């Protein structure tokens, strides 16, 4: 009865358009009131106490550093570098968009931030050169989802905190899968560009001199992931402290080196980060209350028992989990899904011998696909907004890229070495 109340209320709330954070809180409230003897104030208590976490501080600081980098001239220099590297290929601007998103992913940690920073430049540029608007926005939306896989990654921080898994190891584990997904998107883009007759952006084939010059111009931007990962693995600072270092570095580079950050834009960046983080923390707090109530009612244990009775084969278990996560990602945002599902699914996969670091990559890669699947599809809305492209045209153009990402997801799922090789190397 409690399970029906909990998930039934959640489903009804989502169906009528109630915001996800409120839906989770109301679901827990209804289930406690009608199906439990627990005090109602346990919801607010857990929501507040769950936010009293030092590792969670990394989330707002990574958000802020990504915003500062977007406004401080970092995006432009990364685009210039990407152009010299892949602009000579068929569909040059689409290739530039994907590579630039991969670069920006390594400094922002956020999918929507990556789409806004790179798509804001690239979608209008592609449309001006006769690319289909839906294709241009679909490229930016799908490539932007890599922002949560290539480190630093806000979802990896959250998963690490909830699952007691090393955030540093998760950061390393995301590098190769992120590059794999980026490569898959580039192959898909090349095939479509060849068919549509989209020309290279520049006539000159790969030129080492030009690449070296663009790399030198972007050196301060490219140093950011080196500082973050190097500092963490050198034992100089923790992931949370690395996020603070990223903010300070972004301020210095944007204000005093590139000189594109004004005091007004710095103020606007802080304000934007505060607003986004307030929303995120409300979602995290109420998601934890929801997950805590599930744990008290032993719902994760029941689901785990059901799945293990169904099959103990890791291949089947992972396939079932992937299907579940792809469906969940269509309706629930990444943060809520991570907080609710990690306590349920992590014990199951550990029980069948799957490494928690590998599973973290599978989980985040699945939910990254949720960024481009309607009806939620956050990246689709961001790309539509910054590129001024109709949402419907993006949805029809996103299908080949969605298929490409799902294929990459299956490779990541069943080839654990892709995720575990780098963390193992640094142990």
TrEMBL record:
Signal peptide: none
The species this protein was found in: Cytobacillus citreus
Keyword Aminoacyl-tRNA synthetase: no
Transmembrane segment boundaries: 7-34, 54-74, 86-105, 111-128, 135-158, 170-192, 218-236, 270-294, 314-332, 337-354, 360-382, 394-417
Topology class, membrane: Multi-pass membrane protein
Keywords from the named record: Cell inner membrane, Cell membrane, Membrane, Transmembrane, Transmembrane helix
Pfam families the UniProt entry points to: DctM
Keyword Cell inner membrane on entry: yes
Stated name of the protein: TRAP transporter large permease
Domain TRAP C4-dicarboxylate transport system permease DctM subunit: 7-418
PANTHER family assigned: SIALIC ACID TRAP TRANSPORTER PERMEASE PROTEIN SIAT, SIALIC ACID TRAP TRANSPORTER PERMEASE PROTEIN SIAT-RELATED
UniProt subcellular location: Cell inner membrane
């Amino acid at each position: 009865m409690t399970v029906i109340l909990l998930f039934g209320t959640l489903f009804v709330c989502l169906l009528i358009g109630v915001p996800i954070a409120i839906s989770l809180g109301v679901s827990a409230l209804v289930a406690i009131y009608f199906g439990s003897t627990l005090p109602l104030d346990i919801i607010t208590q857990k929501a507040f106490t769950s936010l009293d976490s030092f590792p969670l501080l990394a989330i707002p600081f990574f958000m802020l550093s990504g915003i500062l980098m977007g406004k401080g001239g970092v995006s432009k220099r990364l685009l210039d570098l990407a152009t010299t590297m892949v602009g000579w290929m068929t569909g040059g601007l689409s290739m530039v968009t994907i590579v630039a998103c991969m670069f920006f992913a390594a400094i922002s940690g956020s999918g929507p931030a990556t789409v806004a920073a790179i798509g804001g430049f690239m979608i209008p540029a592609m449309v001006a050169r006769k690319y289909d608007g839906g294709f241009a926005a679909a490229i930016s939306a799908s490539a932007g989802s890599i922002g949560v896989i290539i480190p630093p990654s806000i979802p990896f921080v959250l998963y690490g905190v909830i699952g007691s898994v090393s955030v540093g190891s998760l950061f390393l584990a995301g590098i190769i899968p992120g590059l794999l997904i980026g490569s898959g998107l580039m192959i898909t883009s090349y095939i479509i560009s060849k068919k549509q007759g989209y020309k290279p952006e520049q006539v000159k084939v790969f030129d080492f001199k030009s690449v070296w010059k663009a790399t030198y111009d972007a050196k301060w931007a490219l140093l950011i992931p080196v500082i973050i990962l190097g500092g963490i693995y050198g034992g100089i600072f923790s992931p949370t402290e690395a996020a603070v270092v990223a903010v300070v570095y972004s301020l210095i580079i944007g204000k005093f080196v590139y000189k594109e950050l004004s005091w007004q834009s710095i103020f606007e960046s802080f304000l934007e980060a505060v607003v986004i983080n307030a929303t995120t923390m409300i979602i995290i707090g109420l998601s934890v209350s929801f997950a805590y109530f599930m744990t008290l009612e032993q719902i994760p244990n029941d689901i785990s028992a059901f799945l293990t009775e169904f099959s103990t084969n890791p291949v089947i278990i992972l396939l079932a989990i992937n299907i579940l996560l792809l469906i969940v990602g269509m309706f629930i945002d990444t943060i809520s899904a991570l907080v609710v599902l990690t306590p349920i699914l992590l014990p199951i996969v550990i029980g069948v011998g799957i490494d928690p670091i590998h599973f973290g990559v599978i989980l985040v890669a699945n939910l990254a696909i949720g960024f481009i699947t309607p009806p939620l599809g956050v990246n689709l809305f961001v790309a539509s907004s910054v590129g001024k492209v109709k949402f419907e045209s993006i949805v029809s153009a996103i299908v080949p890229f969605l298929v490409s990402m799902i294929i990459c997801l299956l490779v990541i799922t069943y080839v654990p070495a892709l995720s575990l090789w780098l963390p193992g190397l640094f142990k």
